[in-house]
């Protein structure tokens, strides 16, 4: 009963959502926990409440540096004011002051990369932690869709922190990935709570097009008809901007784009406008999503197919958090997969680049491998990957590495990269297959995550003849009546008009 | 495109063949070098400093190409352009449309405008919501510096809030009335408050049927006008002054030069400072020049005699070319540092004269 009382006290809720209470009980009795809970089912609440009840402090490892601040904001709004994020956005003096007062914080967010910094690490070691939360834990597995090499160091760091209870969380992890999480985080006797990725209130529709123009027309039709608010995902920033331009030309005004290339202040405005229902539609890349806690999103359209089933499930999971019927619609054209394909091909360094970085040091005198890495022209992910492995072999900051070692490193790295590519291409083929297959989309998705099929087939998916038209009914929202600035300024300050 | 044309051509006209394109690129993008800073003052183009922040070199060059193709400018020598007759006419025609550009002062405010805006908009959003008794809103600014400032200054009681609201309303309204109506509207719509999140520049540009760049510049010119009003009459802008006055009065020194200045004030000499701060001589000299330019009460007399200073000023008022080499040739016994210090001081006076 104590748990329910705390829930009421801190959140005003009477009941836990499925899974929350069980995990909390396990944590409070000192067990490590792996929790796989679909997006939007209140993962955050679990570690907030656990930390409160343990009367302690939680370290939360999250890979999404750019969105960490959203989480901090949400924590503060919920009433957990002593929350802070340590990331590269903090300037030096801010960081200094946070580190000096670390003991005053209850929740500290970090990225796995920033913990490589010796100074930060030693500050983290100077206080006690009662909970070690690994968010997006699937990043630890190279079989997962978002492998982050530095996640592999977390077990070591946790040990150094005095082995606080570990809570690993993910929304989507295939069985193999779940096994990797337990293994690499060295979670012994962990309790495993796997909840279905199924979100019964979201109907899944897939439509294929052989003509890009037709697909655009269909997207426009859906956007004009579907009851909002909604999100449209594209797979490039340019794609998002272009679609918004077309929508504006067609007279659809309450829509803006959102992507990682925008200035921080502007991005925040768009996000808040959407939360505030000033915008009914956001067209965005996958940079938009996490940190957006909008319960009433009625549809998610994928204007391009995403690169894997895991990503797709997460993105459609942003719809219908209020448990009301919602629609996920994927508009597929074969060219959609070219961009992720290209991305997979170029994300990690190719053989030439590996050879360059590990070339004979006479040629590139006076450069450490780390410096060469900067010059090799590889993606950020690629750099992170190389940095991790070179650092692990103790050569990242070396200038002269013996030839034998270099040659063996080359071989190992090339092999790792090949494996990783193969795995990603495999994921891409999986989603292609899922799109093309004419059976029940939901069943196939569940099968992918190793779950049992479901019996209930009402309002399921395009494979089960669900009707998209039942989600129509866009309301003509009264657009903000234009005011001259003088009146608006009066209104803002509540001066008599 | 027109606004780019207008800005770059006006600079070319005022620089009158004394600077290469690259120098002009550094000015419009607000590069923090002694050269760009002193050029901005000397040629009386302070307003354009950092006016096109973020413009890429490629884009800049293609604008120059376009201006050249359209015969609005012509080459004087390699990479140096002057405005043609046709160009002069273009500037004359667009002058009225871009009057707001004259209210910009990038040199003074580019370094602090963003910070100040963040504080203003966050304060207004918080105040506006609380005036309507809504205390559960999501802030549009999350930088800790702005948040701290707003937290400290936020009026606690309802009575105080009403009082501050009417003061701030009047302060803003008064300044905005003096701005061009377009700028005022962009500014007000960019503010967030009760039941409305502010526009992005993109959105305002669309409502206005204008470009994003022009919208940003109109907004910034309003912001700069607010700064100027606070600076000139702090007593008539009590709330705004309490919010951002600190940033506006502080001279626009780089952080590093500011540290050097603090040490100078503690009567450390150049050698000591170089040792304490582990600075190279060239960096130290850059700092001195920066300080000489930005801080009126900083005297350059320890470094050059009044007599020599007057002679340099006289010489260069005659030639009117802000270039070091001819001056150095005329005064071989002076160091470059001494000449630069004089020009920094003199350029500063020049700027004050034109700004008032």
UniProtKB/TrEMBL annotation, chain A:
| Pfam entry (one) | Helicase_C
Species source reads: Fictibacillus arsenicus
Q: Does the keyword Chloroplast apply?
A: no
Q: What is this protein called?
A: ATP-dependent DNA helicase RecQ
Cellular component (GO) terms are: bacterial nucleoid; cytoplasm; replisome
Listed CDD domains: DEXHc_RecQ
Task: Kindly list the biological process annotations in GO that this record carries.
Answer: DNA recombination; DNA repair
Keywords of the record, alphabetical order, are: ATP-binding, DNA-binding, Helicase, Hydrolase, Nucleotide-binding
Is Phosphoprotein among this UniProt entry's keywords?
no
Q: Where is the Helicase ATP-binding domain?
A: 24-191
InterPro entries hit by this protein: DEAD/DEAH_box_helicase_dom, DNA/RNA_helicase_DEAH_CS, DNA_helicase_ATP-dep_RecQ, Helicase_ATP-bd, Helicase_C-like, P-loop_NTPase, RecQ_Zn-bd
Domain Helicase C-terminal positions: 215-364
Q: One MF term in GO for this entry?
A: 3'-5' DNA helicase activity
From TrEMBL, chain B:
Task: Provide the species name.
Answer: Fictibacillus arsenicus
The protein's matches in InterPro entries, at most eight in alphabetical order, are given as:
Helicase_HTH, YpbB-like
Q: What name does UniProt use for this protein?
A: Helicase Helix-turn-helix domain-containing protein
- Tell me which residues make up the Helicase Helix-turn-helix domain: 256-343
What the entry lists under Pfam families is as follows:
HTH_40
């Amino acid at each position: 009963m104590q748990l329910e009382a705390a829930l009421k006290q801190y959140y005003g809720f009477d009941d836990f959502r499925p899974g929350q209470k069980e995990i909390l009980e396990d944590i409070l009795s000192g067990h490590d926990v792996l929790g796989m809970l679909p997006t939007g089912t209140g993962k955050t609440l679990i570690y907030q409440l656990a930390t409160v009840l343990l009367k302690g402090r939680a370290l939360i490892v999250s890979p999404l540096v750019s969105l960490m601040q959203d989480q901090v904001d949400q924590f503060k709004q919920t009433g957990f004011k002593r929350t802070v994020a340590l990331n590269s956005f903090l300037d030096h003096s801010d960081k200094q002051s946070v580190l000096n007062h670390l003991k005053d914080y209850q929740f500290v967010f970090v990225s796995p990369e920033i913990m490589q910094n010796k100074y930060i690490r030693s500050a983290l070691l100077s206080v006690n932690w009662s909970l070690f939360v690994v968010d997006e834990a699937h990043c630890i597995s190279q079989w997962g869709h978002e492998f982050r090499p530095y996640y592999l160091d977390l077990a070591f760091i946790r040990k150094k922190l005095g082995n606080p209870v570990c809570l690993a969380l993910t929304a989507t992890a295939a069985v193999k990935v779940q096994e990797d999480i337990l293994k690499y985080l060295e979670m012994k006797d962990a309790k495993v709570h796997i909840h279905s990725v199924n979100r019964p209130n979201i109907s899944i529709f897939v439509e294929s097009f052989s003509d890009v123009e037709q697909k655009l027309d269909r997207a426009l039709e859906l956007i004009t008809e579907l009851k909002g608010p909604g999100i449209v995902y594209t797979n490039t920033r340019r794609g998002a901007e272009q679609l918004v331009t077309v929508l504006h030309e067609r007279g659809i005004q309450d829509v803006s784009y959102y992507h990682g290339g925008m200035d921080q202040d502007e991005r925040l405005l768009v996000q808040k406008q959407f939360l505030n229902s000033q915008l009914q539609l956001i067209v965005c890349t996958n940079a938009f999503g996490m940190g957006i806690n909008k319960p009433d999103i009625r549809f998610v359209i994928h204007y391009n197919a995403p690169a894997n089933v895991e990503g797709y499930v997460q993105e459609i999971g942003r719809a219908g958090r209020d448990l009301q019927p919602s629609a996920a619609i994927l508009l597929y054209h074969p060219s959609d997969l070219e961009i992720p394909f290209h991305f997979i091909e170029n994300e990690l360094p190719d053989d030439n680049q590996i050879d360059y970085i590990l070339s004979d040091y006479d040629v590139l005198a006076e450069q450490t491998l780390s410096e060469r890495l900067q010059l090799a022209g590889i993606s950020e992910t690629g750099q992170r990957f190389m940095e991790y492995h070179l650092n692990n072999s103790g050569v990242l900051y070396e200038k002269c590495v013996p030839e034998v070692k270099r040659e063996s490193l080359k071989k190992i790295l090339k092999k790792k990269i090949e494996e990783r590519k193969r795995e990603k291409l495999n994921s891409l083929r999986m989603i292609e297959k899922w799109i093309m297959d004419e059976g029940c989309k939901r069943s196939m998705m569940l099968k992918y995550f190793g779950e049992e099929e479901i019996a209930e087939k009402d309002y399921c998916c395009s494979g089960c003849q669900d009707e998209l038209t039942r989600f129509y009914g866009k309301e003509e929202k009264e657009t903000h009546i234009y005011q001259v600035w003088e009146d608006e300024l009066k209104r803002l300050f509540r001066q008599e008009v | 495109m027109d606004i780019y044309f207008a800005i770059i051509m006006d600079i070319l006209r005022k620089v009158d063949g004394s600077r290469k394109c690259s120098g002009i690129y550094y000015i419009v993008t607000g590069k923090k070098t002694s050269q760009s800073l002193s050029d901005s003052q000397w040629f009386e183009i302070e307003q354009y400093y950092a006016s096109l922040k973020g413009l890429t070199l490629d884009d800049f060059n293609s604008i120059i190409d376009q201006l050249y193709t359209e015969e609005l400018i012509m080459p004087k020598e390699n990479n140096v352009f002057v405005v043609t007759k046709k160009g002069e006419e273009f500037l004359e025609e667009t002058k009225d449309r871009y009057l707001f550009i004259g209210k910009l002062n990038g040199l003074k405010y580019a370094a602090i405008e963003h910070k100040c805006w963040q504080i203003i908009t966050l304060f207004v959003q918080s105040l506006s919501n609380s005036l309507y008794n809504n205390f559960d809103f999501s802030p549009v600014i999350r930088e800790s510096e702005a948040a701290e400032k707003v937290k400290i200054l936020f009026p606690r009681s309802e009575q105080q809030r009403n009082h501050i609201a009417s003061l701030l309303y009047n302060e803003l309204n008064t300044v905005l009335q003096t701005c061009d109506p377009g700028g005022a509207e962009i500014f007000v719509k960019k503010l967030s408050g009760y039941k409305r999140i502010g526009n992005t520049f993109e959105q305002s540009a669309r409502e206005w049927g204008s470009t994003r760049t022009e919208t940003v510049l109109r907004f910034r010119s309003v912001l700069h006008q607010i700064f100027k009003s606070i600076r000139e009459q702090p007593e008539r802008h009590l709330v705004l002054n309490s919010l951002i006055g600190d940033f506006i009065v502080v001279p626009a020194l780089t952080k590093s030069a500011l540290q050097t200045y603090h040490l100078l004030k503690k009567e450390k000499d150049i050698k000591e400072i170089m040792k304490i701060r582990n600075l190279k001589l060239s960096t130290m000299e850059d700092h001195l020049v920066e300080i000489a330019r930005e801080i009126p009460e900083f005297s350059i007399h320890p470094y050059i005699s009044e007599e020599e200073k007057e002679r340099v000023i006289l010489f260069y008022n005659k030639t009117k070319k802000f270039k070091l080499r001819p001056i150095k040739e005329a005064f071989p016994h002076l160091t470059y540092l001494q000449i630069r210090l004089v020009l920094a001081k003199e350029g500063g006076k020049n700027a004050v004269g034109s700004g008032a």
